[in-house]
Amino acid sequence: MELELPATAFELGQLLDVGPGVRVELEGIVPFGERRVPLIKVAAGRDQFEASLRDQGPVADIWVVSEHAAMALYALNWARSGDRFLDTVNQFDGEVLDSERRGSVWDFEIQFESHENLTDFRAACQETGLPIEITRLFNPTRPDAGPWYGLTGPQRTALDRAVEAGYYEIPRQITTKALAAEFGVSDQAMTERLRRAIGNLVTNTIQTAEPPIGRP
Fold first, then answer.
1. Which of 90, 104, 124, 176 is the most exposed place for a label (fewest CB within 10 A)?
2. pTM surpassing 0.85?
3. Domain that holds residue 130
4. Domain HTH bat-type spans what residues (predicted)?
5. What is the pLDDT of residues 87-123, one digit of tens each?
6. Do 116 and 152 share a domain, yes or no?
């Protein structure tokens, strides 16, 4: 599903309100020790981003996971006092696939394991007064494949970056080794991630389509 949420309506959104000259995206939330930390992509205004976050009390640490040209991927460790929105997403086994700030609003793409979890999430947001606005609900060819046709969050992020960086262009604009360096994984791991991503897309789109009439 895709939804919009005011930046002031959740704790992380308030922390990431670092000024109009900074382009910030939430790439996902990953395990780090016994807690989960957000991965933040900053495409412009890195100095302003770092200075703003280091001045905020709840932020324990930020560090660069990977960088490419002007873009950097940060991990953020902060003392959460209770982010109602992200806690509700986690409560119903949701996964933040992508998110980007657009002015005073954040656009989210979230995947839930089942339609029941999605329904319960919407109900919980309504009950607790979270002002989400759902802009799109996914209905893939295979309902059990999830909103991204069977892609996991890391597969989708890697594939999206590969396309953006020109991996599938002729001549190729980036290597799997360079992509792997951005994500902090090995060349082989990135190659396998892209291979599995393409396999999932084919399985859940082309192979599920009905054959043309008259085809033997």
1. 104
2. no
3. 2-136
4. 151-202
5. 899 899 888 878 888 888 999 988 887 788 899 999 9
6. no
